[in-house]
Amino acid sequence: MTGEPFAPLTVGVVLAMAVVTYLTKAGGLWLLGRVDLSDRAAAALDALPGAVVVAILAPAVVTAGPPTWLAAGVTVIAARRTGSVLAALLLGVGTTVFFRTAF
Amino acid sequence: MSSDPDPDGGGVDEVRFGPTGVRDGYLRCVPVALGVAGYGVVFGVLAREAGLSVAEATLMSATVLAGAAQLVAVELWADPVPVVAVVGTTLVVNLRYLLMGAALRPWFRHLAPRHAYASVFFTADENWALTMGELRSGSRQGAFLLGSGLAVWSFWVVATVVGATAGSLVGDPARYGLDFALTAVFLVIATELWEGRSTVAPWAVAAAVAVLTEAALPGRWYVPCGALAGALTVVIRRDG
């Protein structure tokens, strides 16, 4: 947050994220050889990343105005058509800037 | 999950772990890692915008190595850092790695534990998929995950440095569009996670619960509430 390259709290949070992430990566190999995961638990875990992304997006998009809705539409279409992250981002951000300036 | 070949049926116990597998994995993954690098640049820029230094953003990419979780963390980042929300959401987003690690078991249980547990650090969505394809097609290269993961890791870390450095250089002129950039990244991730009609119900529930929770509760509670509601929808539909 300051001019320092590393803030102690930030480093602590980053390392905690690293530990938690490694536990999930190693945990499947270790734990799931010993415990059987039910199909529905597996389906729920599989659905979580998408649900997190949608939960982040929904309030931001719903409470935004028409420029953001249009830009969101452009971003999704561009992502599906081009398959390129950067192209979709540039088109989406460009659309936002354009509509905010135009209206 | 249950579509793995019979672990004892195809000479899986001959799984090897050596430099050839590392090299093959790395080289085969380079084209995929180039795509990952695109996300890495974006992550670097957005991490810088959120208040992380170049060094901190790079440390995160080098030690966490989980694209979606890192972008979610940056979205939640504030001053002071909401520690519980960031670490807790990281866990929730990454729980799917449990399934991916379990899928590696038929091959990895034949490796020395130090090889297996060092390799899984380098699990990312992209190289895991590549590795599963390789192993299922009969390859006995146990080091393929490590090699392909090193490709993803090296491109991801370098791209983060590039993005964060560029994010330091672009000042206010680019800023007015950048508040949409994080939304746009999640929209792109959502299109990649979209699995057709089965995705409609959990996502609709996640969105509705998130919007209602956001109006009712302070802070970031709408993220775990919406996400858990969406995941529960999947469970309930399977029962119904």
How many beta-strand elements of chain B?
A: 0
The span between the termini of chain B is: 21 Å
Give start-end ranges of low-pLDDT stretches of chain B. 1-9
Percent of residues in helices of chain A: over 70%
Keywords:
heterodimer; A: 103 residues; mainly alpha; 82% helix; B: 240 residues; globular
Topology:
The complex is a heterodimer of chains A (103) and B (240).
Chain A: H1 8-31, H2 39-63, H3 66-82, H4 85-102
Chain B: H1 19-50, H2 54-63, H3 67-76, H4 83-94, H5 96-108, H6 113-119, H7 125-136, H8 144-169, H9 175-193, H10 200-216, H11 222-239
Helix pairs in contact in B: 1-2, 1-3, 1-7, 1-8, 1-9, 2-8, 3-4, 7-8, 10-11
Give a brief description.
The complex is a heterodimer of chains A (103) and B (240). Helix content of chain A is 82%, strand content 0%. Chain A is mostly helical.
Q: Could you describe the 3D structure shown?
A:
Chain A is mainly alpha-helical and 103 residues long. Chain A contains four helices and no strands. Chain A has helices at 8-31, 39-63, 66-82, 85-102. In chain A, helix 3 (66-82) runs antiparallel to helix 4. The two termini of chain A are 35 Å apart. Chain B is mainly α and 240 residues long. Helices cover 73% and strands 0% of the residues of chain B. Chain B has eleven helices and no strands. In chain B, helix 3 packs antiparallel against helix 4 (83-94), helix 7 packs antiparallel against helix 8 and helix 10 (200-216) runs antiparallel to helix 11 (222-239). Chain B is globular, with a radius of gyration of 20 Å. Chain B starts with 18 loop residues before the first helix and ends with a helix. Classes of the chains: A mainly alpha (103), B mainly alpha (240). The interface between A and B is large, with 71 and 97 residues.
